[in-house]
Each structure stands twice: as C-alpha cells, then as structure tokens.
Amino acid sequence: MESKPPRRRRTQTRASAQITDRDRQLLAFAAEHRFVLAAQVAVLLEVSEAAADARLRTLGNAGYLRRERKLHRQPPCDRITPPGLRAIGSELPPPRTPDLAAYRHDLGLGWLMLAARRERFGPVQSVISERRMRSEDGRRQRDDPGGLQAGEAGGGASRHGVRLGGTGPGGRDRLHYPDMVLVTETGHRVAFELELTTKAPERRERILAGYAADPRIDMVIYLVDRATVGRAIERSAARVGISHLVRVQKVTIGGVARPAGDGRAAERRPARGRVAGEPPAGAAR
User: Fold this and answer.
1) Among candidates 266, 105, 113, 103, which has minimal Cα distance to 181?
2) What pLDDT score was predicted for residue 249?
3) Whole-angstrom Cα distance, residue 160 to residue 128?
4) Which residues make beta-bridge pairs with 190?
5) Per-residue confidence at 158, pLDDT binned at 50, 70, 90?
6) What's the mean pLDDT when you consider all of the chain?
7) Res 61 pLDDT > 90
8) Do 247 and 271 form a contact (C-beta atoms < 8 A)?
C-alpha cells in the first residue's frame, strides 16, 4: 500500500514572520508602554480597529507580543516580548505584567502619547515616555555611576529624573519621573502627570518643589479626571509658590481612556486653554 506524504502544517512560525515598517512602528509604540490596545494601534497606524487587532494577533502568534485580558468586559491588551524588542533593536527592558491597580493609568498613558505625537498639544521635537526615561537613566547609572548629573552642569550625562530632596537607598539621589515629557518645537520641555488619585500633600509638594528647582522643566501639566484632585494640586502649587509653572487640565478616563487636546506649551508662564477628554481623530479610517 502506497503511503501518503505527511500534510504540511500551515501554522505560522516565528522564523517565517515578516516584519514590515508598519510593524516596527507598532512594536516601537508598544515598547514605550506596559501594554497597548487595538484601539490605540488603530489610531497610531490610521487603520480600522479590526485591522489593528488582526495585526496584533499576527505579531502575537509570531512571539513578538503577548496578549492578556486583565479586566472583565474590557478589551484584551498586548505587551511586547523580548523577541519583539530585539526585532526593533530596542534597549528597553520587557514591560512588567500589567497591574490591575494601575490599569486605567497605564491605559491613559497610551492615549496621552498618541495625542502628543499627533501634535494635539502643539508642534513637538520629541515625546519621551516614563519607561524610556527610567531605562536610559538606569543604563547610564550602571555604565558610569559617578557621571550622571541632574542637568548639563558638571560635565556628566544629563539624566531624565527630577531630583527630590534627600537621598534614597544606597545614598543615591531621590528622583521623580514624569509620566511623559514633551519637547516642543522651540526646545521647551513640558512634563505631563496623569493624576487619577490623590497623593498625600507632603509627597505631592515634594514633587512640585523638585519641578520648581529643575531649570530644564518649563511647564508641568497635570491631567486629572476629578475636580477634587485638580483643586488639591492647585493648592499645593500655590503653597510651594509655583502656580505659574503648573497647569491642571480635565480628562475623561473611562473604560477606554482617550485624553487629547489642543494646548500649546512654549514658555515658563501661566498657561491658558484646556485639554479636552475627546477621542483623538482618525481612529477608524
């Protein structure tokens, strides 16, 4: 009896996965965050959400992303894996498993970066995520423990972290990292804080004092979803004496957070205007 040849398996392997320029763009965006959603990728690539989800699944099957569902009745989220980071030559570490307690905050950061990249806050040179700031400071600290400086003075490399008072573990400077830093077209640096919970006044004012003492920061924009949180920030800014440096804006963070806006940030002066909680344009074209 003649035997039939074995049927070829049609499943895609990692070795056969083709990475396009748009895939690299997607993976680079995912590398900046703890996780991303198909809705965010749809805005990033200017495709339908169904097309974005299909591409996320393909990259997941190839091992570049890992899909997880963290909350009941919420869309699945995708986080980049070590093979995904290697595929784009990224030096960022693999993101930690999404934390349920920080889900809304992490979700909002993805929308915030999309809004900034689409120049909803004005023309920009660059947008720097907290993950990137921490990673770059960590590498520099390991490579040259004594050379990392808070600013340009002293001859050392400039670190991203904002120095707070006192020292931390091992006698190191205590640092605070904004959720995002936007470098405007004119070279001004604007720190963004997505503040969805109320910090203790002492901690909040220590952070504000750090911003006040850092000459690199030209403005701090606090995005809040509750008026009580915004008022607490404004009171603290007044006590520290930096109301001119701080701007509080309202955003809507629901099941899918979509902060956006049209604010301009260029000078160290009181800012006017608002950041609305409307969805970024172009989400389904």
Assistant:
1) 113
2) 95
3) 10
4) 182, 219
5) confident
6) 81
7) yes
8) yes
Q: Is the pTM of this model over 0.85?
A: no
Q: Which amino acid type is present at position 58?
A: T
Question: Mutual orientation of helices 227-240 and 201-213 as an angle, nearest 10°?
Answer: 50
- Per-residue pLDDT tens for 198-208? 889 999 999 99
Written as one string, the DSSP assignment of 129-195 is: EHHHHHHHHHHHHHH-TTTEESSSTTSSEEPSSEEEEEE-GGGPEEEE--SEEEEETTS-EEEEEEE
At position 171, the amino acid (one-letter code) is G
Q: How many CB atoms lie within 10 A of CB 5?
A: 5
Q: What is the DSSP letter of 36?
A: B
Q: Which residue type sits at 26?
A: L
Decide if pLDDT at 156 tops 60: no
Is residue 84 packed enough to be buried (19+ CB in 10 Å), middle (13-18) or exposed (0-12)? Answer: buried
Contact call for residues 83 and 64 (beta carbons, < 8 A): yes
**Taking 90 as the threshold, does the pLDDT of residue 99 lie above it?**
no
- Sign of the Cα torsion 131, 20, 183, 148 reads positive
Residues in the chain: 285
Three-state secondary structure call for residue 222: strand
Closest CA to 37 of 6, 79, 8: 79
Reduced to 3 states, what is the DSSP secondary structure of residue 128?
A: strand
Residue type, 235: R
Residue 270 confidence (pLDDT) above 90: no
What's residue 10's pLDDT?
Answer: 45
For residue 101, the 8-state DSSP code is G
pLDDT one-digit tens code per residue, 170-206: 667 789 999 999 999 999 999 999 999 888 999 999 9
| Cβ count near 159 (within 10 Å) | 21
3-state secondary structure of 125: strand
